[in-house]
Amino acid sequence: MAAYNELTAVIGSEISIPCNVTPAMSDDQVTLILWYRGESGNPIYSVDTRQVHGIAPKKNANKQLQERASFNITRTQANLNIKPVRDNDGGEYRCRVDFRRSRTMNSVMKVIIVVPPKNLTIRDSKNNSISGVIGPYEEGATVSLICEASGGRPTPSLSWWKGSEMLDDSYTTLGRGLVKNELVLINLQREDLLATLTCQAKNTNLTIPVSKSVTIDLSLSPQEVKITTPRRPLSSGETLEVVCQTFGSRPPARLSWWIGQESLNSMAKETVSGDGNSTVSRLQFRPTSEEHGKLLICKAHNPETPDSALEDKWDLNVYFAPQLSLALGASQQYEHIREGSDVYFDCNIQANPPVTSVTWKLHSRSLEHQPAAGIIIRNHSLLLQSVGRRHRGKYRCLATNSEGEGISEEAELMVQFSPVCISGQKRAYGVAKHEEVNVTCEVDADPDDIQFRWMFNNTSETIDIITFTSSATQSIASYIPRSKMDYGTLSCWGRNSIGVQRHPCVFSIVPA
């Protein structure tokens, strides 16, 4: 009996089971072909070629094959074709061939039916079924993907692929027709974005493997953030557009502007490129002197990745006109400066760039450096030596740089001094004998809590006058000349806490 090797077919496909019909004698002919399956003695298909003149060979299929079977024959081989193949079509097939003169010939073919895997499932580490786009995962994450196949004969092998690259072909048979392959992806990188990973279940080369794919989605941190506006010195009060751009974030990065803890986002407008790879923010920035030396910061962050922030910094160089404040020397107070003291004024200057000139004014009069007059100007300081009543008034300092001129607030210098006689007073009084005259003495002093003293003087004597009244800086003496010797001069002195009047106010008493 002639024999053939095994024949494999996939369920649902077509199979051709060959049968050798070559007679031993060249002039012999086939008369009957019978196909048997397994141990059954009843043929499943038969072809009777014993032709009656004009009638074709008679073919007969049993109930199992019904309309699925067909037959063709050549000089040397006959084929039983079964389509579509069913799961129960497997087994041993025997073909019996009868000839007119040669002895009967049998051949055997073992048919193996391959059943593809029924279900293919991909699960994550939490045993959730996943498909399509999965994630997003963070860069550096470790991801476990479990592929399970059920059904199929023979038991399929499972393998993971990335395009044409095989990643893992190790699998475990769990029993009950289950097979598992777990793929562990360690330290996901930017290159893994939108990578398609395919699990293939394969148990035959006759068909394309059953497969299922997932696509990796990643949350990507920004790769770069940059303030693209050229760095340059800025002028206080000018308005300029500062541009910041970031690349490489998924989803698109958000940009924020800061100076210290102060947010500037209300002055910025953000746009995202069509592909989402780039974000641009335009800040309408108007710096002030307060921003000089501070950092303007543009931060980029992925809203889905907490620790993804990148930042670029601009160390601001803001030009501004001088800002001045005027102060006395540390040990002095405006209201307690005594005549004869030395007074220091400090002009505190904040300016960028540095000032090119500093000037001083008393009221509207400019002060010059005059050491001989007790006015010394050095750097940003003014020294007044041995101050007196003439130094009282409102002082200011002025400074200039390339951004403009700054003027300090006025500082009023109050010098405390002993009494001095006020000019313009009536200095001569004509009075008759025995007539009373009131002589008014006015002085200037600080403080004005003054004690007065009056004296009469003629060519022969000096007498204290005790008849007078005083109020603040004024004193009025009552005087009556009674003889020719009572005509002369009245002198008035004042005294306060600073000292005694150096030069008295002198009034002439003459006959009327």
UniProtKB/TrEMBL annotation:
Q: Which SUPFAM superfamilies match?
A: Immunoglobulin (SSF48726)
Gene3D superfamilies (alphabetical): Immunoglobulins (2.60.40.10)
In terms of Pfam families, this protein maps to: C2-set_2, Ig_3, V-set
Is Translocase included in the keywords of this UniProt record? no
Ig-like domain residues are 1-106, 117-215, 222-317, 322-414, 419-492
Q: Where is the major localization of this protein? A: membrane
Q: Which UniProt keywords apply?
A: Disulfide bond, Membrane, Transmembrane, Transmembrane helix
Q: Where in the cell is it found?
A: Membrane
Q: What membrane topology term does the record carry?
A: Single-pass membrane protein
Give the signal peptide as a residue range, or say none if absent: none
- One Gene Ontology cellular component annotation? membrane
Protein name in the entry: Nephrin
Source organism (scientific name): Nephila pilipes (Giant wood spider)
Q: What is the lineage of its organism?
A: Eukaryota, Metazoa, Ecdysozoa, Arthropoda, Chelicerata
